[in-house]
Design a protein that fits this description.
two-stranded antiparallel sheet, two-stranded antiparallel ribbon, alpha+beta, 4 strands
């Protein structure tokens, strides 16, 4: 089946986002028939805010080892490993 990129409106924040042809193919492969209702940013925020396995995650305050911003992480940091905010973590992971 041929898919084409489509612009949708997020029901959470109202922003326009692109539902790519690749995403449409993935949805079809998984048997999902409905278009996404939220933009990728709002979907990620909902996943972050949703308790894993019905349990509330304990969050720990840390300072990013790269940019120095204060953030929270869902694990207890160890002193021998750097901890990054989500933005810096994405940058570090992209370099690896």
């Amino acid at each position: 089946m041929n898919y084409a990129d489509r612009t949708l409106k997020c029901r959470e924040c109202g922003a326009d986002f692109v539902f790519t042809a690749g995403e449409q193919a993935f949805f079809a492969e998984k048997g999902l028939i409905n278009d996404p209702q939220r933009c990728p940013e709002c979907r990620a925020a909902r996943r972050r805010d949703r308790p894993a396995g019905g349990m509330v995650r304990e969050m720990h305050s840390v300072v990013c080892a790269q940019c120095g911003v204060e953030t929270t992480v869902p694990f207890l940091p160890r002193q021998d490993r750097p901890v990054y905010c989500s933005t810096c973590f994405d940058q570090v992971r992209a370099r690896a």
